[in-house]
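Record 1 of the preview.
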Amino acid sequence: MLKTSDLISSCQNDWDAYTRHRFVCELGNGTLPEGAFRHYLQQDYLFLTHFARAYALAIYKCDNFADMRYPLTSLQGTLDTEITLHIDFCKKWGLTETDMMAIPEATGTVAYTRLVLDAGQSGSLVELYAAMAPCAIGYADIGQWLINKSDTVFDGNPYREWIDMYGNDEMQEAGNNCAAQLDAMMRDIPKDSAAANRIKKIFRDAVRMEIAFWEQGYQDA
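->
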C-alpha cells in the first residue's frame, strides 16, 4: 500500500528544501524583505484561483456522489475561507483584489499551476491529488514548525498573522485530511509499481514547484 509518507520520503531532500526554505525561515524571524512577501501574496492569489479550478476538476473526475464530497468541501473551503482570509490579509499590505487580478502571473506560478491542472486533465484522479497534496500538507507542516520553533519571533513580526493562519488548528486539520484522503485513494497501489512511480514523480515535481514559488519572491520582487 502506497502512503503519503512514502511520497515524501521518496523526495525527502526536496521536501526539506521546500518546508524549511529560507523564505519560510525569514518569515519566522521577521527578516523577510517586504517586497518578496508582497510578491508572494500577489502570486499566491493567482495560484489559489487555479487551485480552485483543480478542485472543481477533481469533482468532475469522481465516479460517485460520495467521492465528490471531499473535493467539494475543499473547494468550498478555498472559496469561502482561504481566499477570503487571503484578500483580507492582502488589504493590510495595501493590495486590493482588483490589484491582484490585474497582476501578470510569474513564470513559477504558471509552471506550478499548469503542472497541477495537466496532472488532472491528462491523468487519473489520484494523480491530480498527488499534484495538489504538497500545498495543503506542506503549508500545514510549515505552520506547525514555525509555531513550535524556538527562534520564531512573534512580538513585532510583520508576518505573524501568516504564521498564525497556517499554524492554526483548521489548517492542521486540512493538511491531515488531505494526507488521509490521498492515503485512501492509494490503498490498492503497490509501493514499487509503475503507477506508484508515476505518482511519486508527480508529487516530487509539485514539491519542486513549491521551492520555485518561494524563490521567485526574491527574484521578481
